[in-house]
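P.,

For your records, the input lines for the assembly:
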Amino acid sequence: MTTRTLQFNIYRYDPDQDKKPWMQDIAVEVDSTDRKLLDALVKLKAKDDAIAFRRSCREGVCGSDAMNINGKNGLACLTDLSVFPAGKPIVLRPLPGLPVIRDLIVDMTQFFKQYHSITPYLINNEPPPERERLQSPEDREELDGLYECILCGCCSTACPSFWWNPDKFVGPAGLLAAYRFIADTRDQATSARLDNLEDPYRLFRCHTIMNCVDACPRGLNPTLAIGKIKAMLVQRAI
Amino acid sequence: MKYSVSVRKFDAVIVGAGGAGLRAAIQLSESGYKAAVLTKVFPTRSHTVAAQGGVAASLGNSEEDHWHWHMYDTVKGSDWLGDQDAIEFMCKKANECVIELEHYGMPFDRTDSGRIYQRPFGGHMSNFGEKPVRRSCAAADRTGHAMLHAMYQRNVKANTQFFIEWMALDLIRDSEGEVLGVTAMDMETGEIVAFHAKATIFATGGGGRIYYSSTNAFINTGDGLGIAARAGIPLEDMEFWQFHPTGVAGAGVLITEGVRGEGGILLNAQGERFMERYAPNAKDLASRDVVSRAMTTEINEGRGCGPNKDFVLLDISHLDPATIMKRLPGIREIAIQFAGVDCIKEPIPVVPTAHYQMGGIPTNYSGQVVVPGRRSQNEIVPGFYAAGECACASVHGANRLGTNSLLDLLVFGKSAGESAVDQLKQSPKAHKEMPQGEIDRALTRIDRLNNQKDGASVHETQLEMRRTMQKHAGVFRFADLLTQGVDKILQVRENVQRTEIKDKSAVFNTARVEALELDNLIEVAVATMVSAEARKESRGARLWYKECNRLDYKSVKLTPLTVETIELKTRAY
Amino acid sequence: MLNRVVVGAHYGLKDWLAQRITALVMMLYTLFIAVAVLGGVHDFESWRGLMAHGFVRFFSFLFIVSLCWHAWIGVRDIWMDYIKPVGIRLALHSLTALALVGYAGWAIQVIWRL
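Structure tokens returned:
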């Protein structure tokens, strides 16, 4: 089996041991069965069990292993090892803009706080019918590209507006979720949802930088959803 | 090393925030009880998120269907090892539970008339096994994701209290056997807390990581099973593991049976649709054990594909690309990402891959944990409930029907929650006193790990365990391999008892978490190997090679709740 | 003051919309000037001739108001992003507003003096 050696340059910080963060140079042998960055990380951890990162499904649906890979946010389990140029170390850092708990693990409290702030659940105050609420296939299609979000945080932590105002700006992930409910024909709280977002910080910190679109490992487009929210606000106001 | 363990009191503690845990939590929170939900990962990262094809319910949105037919299919799928009372209960409750999900906001695909879209699936037949029926309610090929998010969102609405990135360590039981909660570790700080509860619900998922090649996530380490086993609760039906026919060769990532439901077919190296030989009626949509066994036979007999002839092909290139993009978009992504093929044009290389644990913590259909005791075979353990893959209400028997896993976690998550609510309503007494010795049990394990010198590597030990399980307890089971397997896995267990970690930090110590997970995994592995060796028959997903007889014994509950018993038959699709 | 994150000011839409409309005005004006320059407006006299039209004066006035309005929103957003203490931020907001009003007045004066 052919093996090759990968060089890594990894952000390390354990508040229990380290006074300040440092970058670790470490190499690991991978073979042809190791396709993804996560495979290499698992081998790295076998070498140095103190390297801390989150991971779970290893197929890009749980959103655990988001990190900053050579300067770009992405999921380790969906990043091909073959894309890394030989001879250059792979630089791994935690997602930017959030407090680091340890190594590649960030504190996502702020990110989830924003998600929770948009009332992320269906609101329909009519008594539920005995059967399903009807929805046409066309109406259901409106939710495509919205409900698939895995809450990995790649988008929001790539967004400068979120870096400056993580406490006030909902961020691309939260706004995508907000529009997911606005777009759902079964939801009855559209006005309240729009009220909730009409704020110079919560929604209008989005300056269409589109880093979120670039960062999303699921290929979703939060900027488009944000644009639709703004269009609805205009529609409501005039 | 000294530890100070603080105690926190709740009405109920739920361990695990996957589908079953979240469903149980909804029940408790909406009934106004104070429940703590402990989870190793943020709830939407639980492995339910990876379920693809659908959830079974006889809604009959596209053609006539009936819960009784669903029950028949489930019993037949289980090779008559499932408890028919529990199966009846589940199939009857299916519609109600799926409709509830829709009301929670789950974005199901829709039929033209606006109802929930249903697709055919392996082993789903109408009129007691006559012809395939569309029963699997789906949200594209992301049903688990849509479901898990919808249930998490409902919990946000119900204000459920989550303890995220907390790992349960051990059960707390008093001298009478009543369960009083769990000890758990905050992964971020290493702090250990005793969660004192009147009702404890386990929804910790399966232990699929005992196998080398598995569709399961890293977190599927059978924590609830390890914890229960250490607390003296026997595990049921652990020899039955489902090998999903279509895991991506090499990567192990799941390709849903929905692919075959939408028209995909399996091909061997000669380009033959070989399932026609093994299951003339259901063909590629026979139940999973049948398909996996057929695939393995093809590979063993030299008709596998690729340079090593070690996989077969799953072909959907004859389908309309628009259908693939609409109904199976996630599959296309997975094929490109993990198999390097675009399934619109090329077939996907697949192999049977360890997927689902049919056995688990024994429960009745109300989600109450039962153990063999002095008075009966099914004595209730007071205060203890389990649901989902970690539990064995015994609806899957020897082989689970596709889409019955999501249904299991909905129905039994809810019924475990309801049972806990009933218990809390009926006995509003104060918390019982907690025995200190039980808390110390978890501390001893942590302490051992912190002070172990010259021990075994966690990584090497888990690899050894996974390789042993893969080799000795795979799709086909051989008597001699199993006998050796038992010795081998017991040796591995000795190493597990002396694992050593280099990382001693208190802060987010993932090395420690992995070592503690291995403590749980090995319990699952040993239980699997020992019971596989002990069962001398072929049944469902667990097959003695070339000795295909089934022992029709009577320990199974064959009496349903209201309908007549589905009589034993030879299984053919 | 109570140190709590408060949002829900219920404005922002008008600003966002204004930014887009003013941008449109500025774009049209820029095109208009570009056409004028290409069409031979280059020395003081020809500029003066152009500006003598009432329409051009009005269009220039609209441009300046748009520019200032646009700049007000943009600069205010920068202060909102980077300046956290409320007192300093309010002072900067006021200075920005005064400066922009001043610039606008001055520019209008210049146009009508032509």
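Two observations worth noting. The first helix of chain A runs from residue 37 to 47. Helices of chain A lie at 37-47, 109-116, 137-141, 160-164, 171-182, 190-197, 211-215, 222-237.

Regards
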